[in-house]
Amino acid sequence: MTIRCEIVSQDRTVFTGDVDIVVLPGAAGEMGVLPKHAPVLTTLKFGVIKVRKGGREEIFTVAGGVAEVQPDIVTVLADAAENVEEIDVARANAARVRAEEALAKGVPADTDVYLAMEAALRKSNLRLDAARRYRKNSRSPYSEQ
Amino acid sequence: MASAREMRLRIKSVKNISQVTRALETVSASKVRKAINAVTATRSYATKAWQVLRHVAEQPGRESLHPLLAQRKSVNNTLVVVITGDRGLAGAYNSNVIRFASQRFDLNPAPVKYIAVGRKGRDLLIRRGKKVIADFSNLPAAPSFADVSAVGRLAVEEFKTGTVDEVYLLYTDFVNMGRQIATVKKLLPLELEGEGLVEDFGNKSTGPAAAYEYEPDMRVILDEIIPRFTALQVYQAVLESQASEHAARMIAMRNATDNAKELVGALQLAYNKVRQQGITNDILDIVGGAEALSAK
After folding, report:
1. Which of B177, B208, B223, B267 is the most buried (most CB within 10 A)?
2. Residue A21 domain boundaries
3. pLDDT tens, residue by residue, A112-139
4. Do A70 and B210 touch (CB under 8 A)?
5. How many other C-beta atoms are found inside a 10 Å radius of the C-beta of residue B3?
6. Which CATH architecture describes the domain B22-251?
7. ipTM for this prediction
8. Which residues does chain A have within 8 Å of residue B48's beta carbon, measured at their own beta carbons?
9. CA distances from residue B289 to B278, B279, B282, B283, B295 in whole angstroms, order as listed
10. Do B143 and B162 meet the contact criterion of CB atoms below 8 Å apart?
11. E strands, chain A, in order
């Protein structure tokens, strides 16, 4: 018994496949979805989606969005989603430094720029944390530094 | 008749022009392909978002679902998002969009305001004395969703605050290399019934919609999805328009190259005649001179 899982972001399909369980960072907390789950529509927080099939587990970062759960399918409409293995640590790091510098310089709060920088900072932090915690290849993403 | 030297220069300059136009044609050809791929990549999100919205729409008590879904009783102001290119040299691409806008909205019962995406469209609208409230020019060549999302956000904002009661999206639909059609779509309020925006999103349903549980609640979820879906439609329209623009430019440049070749042929012929005439005259001169000498 499997459940179909589809993760799409605005510009591409990130993941499709039949899996055993999907764990979502729902608005009301972590939510494990098994086949024949009751229909739910939930917003997602910044976090990771875990998809398990057999003994294999794949991890995706998601920067908010919406998930629709039906008995036979989970559809994730993500604002930005990425397989942990694909995360470019160097780029995420650079993005974080850039955002931190910009915020430190004192952008007036409540402007679009401030919000955008803050979101960028949260996003790169999320990606870095996820890469550090879930990467399968043994080398730490920070080892190069 | 022009002198041989002038004609030689003219031929050279026409040849140079044809080289430039041929280069532009090649560049556009590869850009069309990229733009089409980008459109295709957005389809899956659009399809899914549309399905979720449809499922929600089938829930009971949907009359007061969301302000962005509500039809207004009277339309006092109309907003049109017009998507054109930043650059010319694309045949009739830009003027077609504006001509279509005129046909469609000049006789609109409610006053019309415009948001221009693309420099050419902005200039043409202003020249025609239209009211342009915002201008998004100089988008990058292959815009990301983030580059374009501000357009959708502004449209949603205008609609929410009640400054406008309906929003249309005017763009160029890419049919194929030789055919691009200026098209209008209703963006807001979002109509969940009928075809409207669905067209090729595909109607495959993921089974009957059961009653949902909402976390945290329906309003918040719709607040997430609908503005994004709207922004995505704008994004898709921008990509379609870009594909159309590049295709139009490619065709225009190909025609220009062909014309230049023809012109070079004609000029070359004329030049050869002038040159031959010169030689003949020279020979006549020499022969005449020699004869005058020997006749002495």
Report:
1. B267
2. 3-83
3. 677 777 777 788 888 888 877 777 654 5
4. yes
5. 10
6. 3-Layer(aba) Sandwich (3.40)
7. 0.72
8. 6, 8, 68, 75, 77
9. 16, 15, 10, 10, 10
10. no
11. 3-9, 12-19, 21-26, 29-33, 40-53, 56-70, 73-78, 81-83
